[in-house]
Design goal:
single chain, 462 residues, mainly beta, RNA Polymerase Alpha Subunit, Chain A, domain 2, 4 domains, 5-stranded mixed sheet, rod-shaped
Length: 462
Amino acid sequence: MDKWLSHPTALKIISVILGLLLWAVVHIDPESTPQTVMTTSIDTKIIEAAKIIPQGYDAEKYALTAMEPTVVRIVVQGRISDLLAAASIEDYPVTVDLKDAKPGIQELPLTLDMPKGIELVEMSPRTVTVQLEEILTKPFELQIDVTGKPADGFVAGTPTLVEPTGEVQVTLPKDDMSRVGLVSTEINVDGEDKTVSNKRAKVVVYDTEGVEMTNAVVSPETVHVEARVTPPFKSVPLHVRYTGTLPDGLSLVSVKPSIAEVTVYGDTKSLEGVQVYDGAVLDLSKVEESGTFQVKTQLIDGVKIIEPAEIDVEVVVAPVVTRTMTAIPVTVEGEADGQTAKFLVPADGKFSLTVSGAESVISKLTAADIRIIVNVDGLKPGVYDVPLQVDVPAYVQIVIGDAGTLSVSMEIVDDAAADSGQDEDSEPVTGTPSDVPEETPVPGEGGAGNEEPSDTGSNTNT
């Protein structure tokens, strides 16, 4: 026995047993009941700010625009082990049921979902005031704002919305929807010399005072926008020119390009001189029937880029007919001061002209639609064959024939000489240059005056 008690292991076991007996003597009150011993394992927990969670309402129809308060104070109790197991604030969800709530302001009870084994001692407050508003969704046109300054010598064109191609949808409570002032996005072109693209440009909603409405829901939230950065440009009217000739027997009825204007790009000085773009040329030799033809736009002086690069031109042709227009007055231009231009052929100053074209065009033609001009600028007194300048409406051609040119015979008369001749002819002279007049002296003049009537008569007959 003495040997066993002196063994180290036995001594350790005895020490543990004595320690447990001493702990029991100190901590156990002989007068306490078993129930009192159990209460020492119950504790209390206080949660100062448990978040209130709204649930049950249709978020597509209503918006929770106000809730007061947003947190509550909770006091719970339970066994220490249970409290330690539910130590997180998320283990004590406080909810308000909005399933049957209507638009407007209302007070509703709060519900606390307690963890297992834990009891609620106190919750303050036990109700919450909420405000529900009806939700509206409306389409809005997106405004694209260009910020920054392009590189020197370049300008930013009008930005475009690449995707989506239509309007954006904005969702807001009904009262807030009436305050929407602008829906926009931005694209920065600072220092750029080529087209800028932003595939994730954020869409922002502003109220009528320019303040961002952060509660707005936008669909889509981002868009794809582009801003062209180019040399200076301007839009000018388009004029289609022709080259070649139509096949025999055909005439133009109409030529209608698909657009009325083109955009030309170049330096500012060069663009100042471009008022009309006539670099689109239609080759009539390739037009065998009515239809739509593609015409390329060619560069002209000072222009670096032209848009569009091709133009659709609708061409209508029809069989050609001819018609002779009579009694078209000829307008005289370029008469010098002191001179008069007189028509010799035709004497009445009216001209007959044969024209050709499509029947639908020629049938509507009148003499007033044709302008014939004869220019006598720089001509001295005398008789001349002067070529005519003829202006006819579009799609009407002049039939010149074998003559090759159109002309009239004109006499240019010096007004002073004509007036002098009229004074001399005011006293009629009889006889011929061979007749010898009677010698009747003129009072106050000598014999030299006897030959003057003969000379005068000779000039008149010339």
